[in-house]
């Protein structure tokens, strides 16, 4: 599996009396995959340098739980081989949706050339992805378990919990927390410079939710509870959060007018938002025929709504 490579004589003292002997492996490259829940990147590691020009979407096909992943393959450790050919061992696939606990990564590859010119082909798969749950009050099997992991591992982080070891999934989420979670999930966009006027007397500059509220107002996600108040510490209701999400999604019209919920009346400000959310699987209500629009939205519910809409 190796061939001998002879070097030139060294041109500098001390005088060389023997030739350098190098071994160049002709073995094909093998591939391993890895990823982290909450991150969108997949790492590909070959066990020997491969020619960067031969690692493309056509030669390396990556799947997530059976669904093909598309994106840009970027070499992370490029370097030139002896013949000047650019090679690398590690590549990153960007552009996919955030990975989730339980996802299985797999890949097939062909036509990938090693630094020594050996064509490589094969397949690779990883164990189902797992992430350590930092919170003692989020039980495995809870409907919000994967969503909490997504929120904690998202970049930027959507929430760090209520302490280092608790998430408080049953606590009511405040309006300030709701728009902040949404803003972080969207990548913490800066409010437009010309729209930094703050209409709310109860949203002080420097508050953790200040920029999030200005962004939400600027994008028509909320207009506050009055013209001059936002009520940041009031509980965010289930109707309000699905309305925020619906407005963020540019108020997509539901495909059907079938309303499964007896407590969501036509004409209510949240009517279309609830139908849209139910249609897209963001919520199925609190019962088969009830949505409970005025009930406080819990922290477990809000990260679940966000994850289902955006992950």
Describe, in short, the structure shown.
This protein is of the alpha+beta class and 311 residues long.
Give a description of the structure.
- About 30% of the residues are buried.
- Residues about 5-15 have low confidence and may be disordered.
- This protein has about 300 residues and is an alpha+beta fold.
- Strand 3 (about 30-35) and strand 4 (about 40-50) form a beta hairpin.
- The longest helix is centred in the last third of the chain and has 12 residues, at about 300-310.
- The strands form 3 sheets. Strands 3, 4, 7, 8 and 9 form a 5-stranded antiparallel beta sheet that branches. Strands 6-5-10-11 form a 4-stranded antiparallel beta sheet, with no helix packed on it.
- The protein contains 6 helices and 11 strands.
- The chain starts with a strand and ends with a helix.
The string of secondary-structure elements, in order, is EEEEEEEEEEEHHHHHH
Sheet with the most strands, sense and barrel status: 5 strands, antiparallel
* Helicity range: 10-25%
Q: Please give the alpha-carbon distance between the first and last residues.
A: 45 Å
Number of DSSP strand runs = 11
Tell me the layout of helices and strands:
Layout: E1 2-6, E2 21-25, E3 31-35, E4 42-51, E5 60-64, E6 67-69, E7 72-75, E8 79-80, E9 86-94, E10 105-113, E11 119-125, H1 145-153, H2 175-185, H3 210-218, H4 238-248, H5 271-279, H6 299-310
Antiparallel strand pairs: 1-2, 3-4, 4-9, 5-6, 5-10, 7-9, 8-9, 10-11
Describe this protein with a few key phrases.
311 residues
């Amino acid at each position: 599996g190796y061939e001998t490579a002879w070097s030139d004589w060294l041109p500098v003292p001390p005088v060389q009396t023997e030739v350098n002997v190098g071994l160049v492996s002709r073995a094909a490259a093998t591939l391993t995959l890895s990823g982290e829940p909450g991150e969108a990147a997949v790492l590909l590691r070959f066990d020997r340098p491969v020619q960067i020009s031969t690692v493309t979407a056509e030669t390396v096909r990556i799947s997530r739980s059976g669904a093909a992943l598309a994106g840009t393959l970027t070499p992370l450790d490029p370097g030139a081989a002896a013949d000047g050919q650019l090679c690398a061992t590690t590549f990153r696939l960007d552009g996919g949706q955030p990975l989730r606990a339980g996802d299985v990564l797999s890949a097939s590859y062909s036509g990938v050339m090693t630094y020594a010119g050996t064509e490589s082909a094969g397949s690779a798969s990883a164990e189902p992805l797992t992430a350590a749950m930092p919170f003692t009050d989020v039980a495995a099997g809870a409907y919000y378990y994967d969503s909490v992991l997504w929120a904690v591992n998202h970049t930027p982080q959507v929430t760090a919990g209520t302490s280092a070891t608790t998430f408080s999934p049953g606590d009511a989420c405040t309006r300030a927390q709701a728009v902040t979670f949404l803003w972080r999930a969207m990548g913490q966009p800066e409010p437009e410079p010309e729209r930094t006027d703050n209409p709310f007397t109860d949203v002080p500059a420097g508050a953790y939710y200040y920029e999030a509220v200005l962004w939400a107002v600027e994008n028509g996600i909320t207009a506050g509870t009055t013209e001059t108040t936002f009520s940041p510490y009031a509980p965010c209701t289930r109707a309000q959060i699905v309305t925020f999400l619906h407005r963020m999604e540019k108020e997509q019209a539901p495909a059907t007018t079938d309303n499964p919920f007896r407590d969501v009346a036509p004409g209510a400000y949240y009517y279309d938002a609830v139908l849209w959310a139910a249609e897209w699987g963001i919520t199925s209500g609190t019962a088969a025929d009830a949505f409970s629009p005025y009930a406080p939205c819990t922290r477990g519910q809000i990260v679940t709504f966000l994850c289902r809409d955006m992950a």
